[in-house]
């Protein structure tokens, strides 16, 4: 799993009724885009995460100029 600053980390709910937790990666602490990541979640909480199997990385879209 590799990520860059600005990508989203999504922790999927594990039980029925539990919502996904979405955060923005603000720092990559591992080498070459590997975990752990410092993540700022939607509620303002910040923490260091080493993603598990219930987590996905949504890469930010990069646009190239004309």
TrEMBL record:
<feature type="domain" description="DUF1918">
    <location>
        <begin position="1"/>
        <end position="57"/>
    </location>
</feature>
<feature type="region of interest" description="Disordered">
    <location>
        <begin position="43"/>
        <end position="66"/>
    </location>
</feature>
<protein>
    <recommendedName>
        <fullName>DUF1918 domain-containing protein</fullName>
    </recommendedName>
</protein>
<dbReference type="InterPro" id="IPR015035">
    <property type="entry name" value="DUF1918"/>
</dbReference>
<feature type="compositionally biased region" description="Basic and acidic residues">
    <location>
        <begin position="55"/>
        <end position="66"/>
    </location>
</feature>
<dbReference type="Pfam" id="PF08940">
    <property type="entry name" value="DUF1918"/>
</dbReference>
């Amino acid at each position: 799993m590799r990520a860059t600053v600005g990508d989203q980390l999504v922790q999927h709910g594990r039980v029925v009724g539990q919502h996904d937790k979405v955060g923005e990666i603000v720092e990559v602490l591992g080498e070459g885009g590997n975990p752990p990541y410092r993540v700022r979640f939607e509620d303002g909480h910040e923490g260091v995460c080493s993603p598990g199997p219930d987590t996905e990385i949504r890469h930010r879209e990069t646009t190239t100029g004309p």
